[in-house]
Amino acid sequence: MKFQFEPSGTRANALDRAMHVSLAQSLHYISQQCLGQIDFDAVSLNRLVENISVTRYGATLFGLYYQLVDAIDDDDHTQAGHLFDRLVSEQPVSSGLQVHAIEDEWTSGQAELYRRGMSTDPTVNFSFLQPPDEMAAQFKQKLVATLDRFEPVLPEMIAEIRGLLSEIVLAVGEADAEYVFDGGSSYQLWGALFLNPAFHDTEIQVMEVVAHEAAHTLLFGLTVEEALTENDDDELYASPLRVDPRPMEGIYHATFVSARMHWALSKLLASEVLTEKERDFALAAQSEDAANFFAGLSVVEEHGRLTPTGSGIMQAAKQYMTSVINRSTGVST
């Protein structure tokens, strides 16, 4: 099936359900293989598997699953049994998009799980620290206001965001760190998006970063069965969004994400909801997104060994960006 570049809430809901079903199937298989070797409550685990197939769970469940796989691979049966116990104690998430700081009381004990799940890049060490209470509260209000304000202009993108994400986690970095994250997500923490409230001062900046990070999550969901590229992780190339060389998978992500941010900003610019200052920001950011996309595309096309999935998704993004550029220059397509 041809990939539809534009956001889709229906597709997002389907991807979220597919991720849950895949997790349920994998947990069922793992539990069957572990019977008699690792001590765990098989009845409760089977009940969890049934619930996952029909109910939405948060990122913690996915993070625990990856830790369980690691413990089993390491033959650490004690840790695996402990993780089975934690898994069966997980509860479905409440409806709606939840926003909380990384060490909020109701996520006590989950902060290290979040940090581990977000620390999958061996080349960069990011910190994910609890933001000051006032900063977190103000950013949460701004985030809610942003989604409410722009939903009439970006209905499918907001629906996609709500379909892909169950929670937004707020965290800050160390002030003197060489690299400080402003937003992030991880395939090991499906459904969670991490934002740094020390950045993104305005509502349009918040909308841009949410569109950015949700696009990464979309790609995670689209590649459950097949990766985007076949390049090895130790093959590093120049990236449009990072100063450090990146694996092809990361460059692919950055390239696609640039097109998605361009799409969102184009919709906002075509509306009448932006202030003059916001329009200036959007125009500059849109131009930068276009430059980043084509810079990344040149690296992907020259060095990337794309899978059929990766090729189809990138072709759709290229078609969108090319059509936009052609329209702006008066070139017919």
From TrEMBL:
Q: InterPro entries per the record? A: AKG_HExxH
Query: Which NCBIfam families does the record associate with it?
Result: mod_HExxH
- What name does this protein carry? HEXXH motif domain-containing protein
Organism expressing this protein natively: Devosia aurantiaca
